[in-house]
From TrEMBL:
It comes from the Bacteria. This is Polyphosphate kinase 2 family protein. The lineage of its organism: Bacteria, Bacillati, Actinomycetota, Actinomycetes, Mycobacteriales. GO terms for biological process: polyphosphate metabolic process. GO terms for molecular function: polyphosphate kinase activity. Coiled coil: none annotated. The keyword Glycoprotein does not apply. It comes from Rhodococcus xishaensis.
Amino acid sequence: MATRDRTQQHPLWTTPAVEALRAAPHTKVSEIDTKATPGFAGNKTDGEYMLEERGAVLSALQEMLYANGRSGDKRSVLLILQGMDTAGKGGMVRHVIGQVDPQGVDHTAFGVPTPEEKRHHYLWRINKALPRGGQLGVFDRSHYEDVLVVRVHNLVPPEVWGGRYQEINQFERELVYNGTTLVKVAMFVSLGEQKRRLAERLARRDKHWKYNPDDVTERALWPQYQEAYQAMLDRTSTDHAPWYVVPCDRKWYSRLAVTELMIDALSRLELDWPSAEYDIEVEKQRLARS
Ligand code: ADP
């Protein structure tokens, strides 16, 4: 099957996810409808059914990326997930990336920097975690924490975090130049939906481990976070590495949408199966004789 056939637009997508979700200069974080399903005309049942179908497409493309990597192709794809607590970053990794072969996935979650990480430049730990050729990298949080939580909590002076937007753009430009396609996903839930999800964590014994009392403290800083997310979109959504703004109150939608973004990114590589580096006919004969 040619790559183009695999990525054909489904009629329920009235606008392709890459177009419907791409951050625009006029995108206002405070006006994002977190319950919306941009570009998609189907309901939850449609969305869940399609996730499975499109997951198979994503998986086949990822296998091709991996196969090419094994044959020396230096290209890779990196999914960057940023979002407030409970936006569903973990679920995104499980349900979207979980659809592909784990041996081709390079997953890193970035928490509070360790003492060693703190001794280095903030991009040090990011550089160490970049995907190698043929890998599908996933960052659960990323260098963007250094202009989000760091900005909101004044962990460094404004002139320091202020200089990071340009530095990040430059860093990402080099990554793209060196063959990494970036898929930057900003995940948005409403304050109300976050409350509901946190309440569920408190209500269920199997979810207590996910609850962190600090998350409630952070809710008081919601406007400051919105401002920081706005600056991130305004200043780091570039042609070489645009942001996609994904409403996340409906998990079935956000997972399907990111699956589509990943399919698009992989399709653009125009991959094919690597050709054999041995004589197939000779090998067939050798095998028959063995
Ligand atoms: P999660 O909350 O995603 O399940 P953790 O419990 O590891 O994962 O929490 C990650 C925490 O680390 C978040 O509060 C996040 O803001 C914080 N963090 C990540 N990067 C940085 C950074 N560069 N500086 C300060 N805090 C950071």
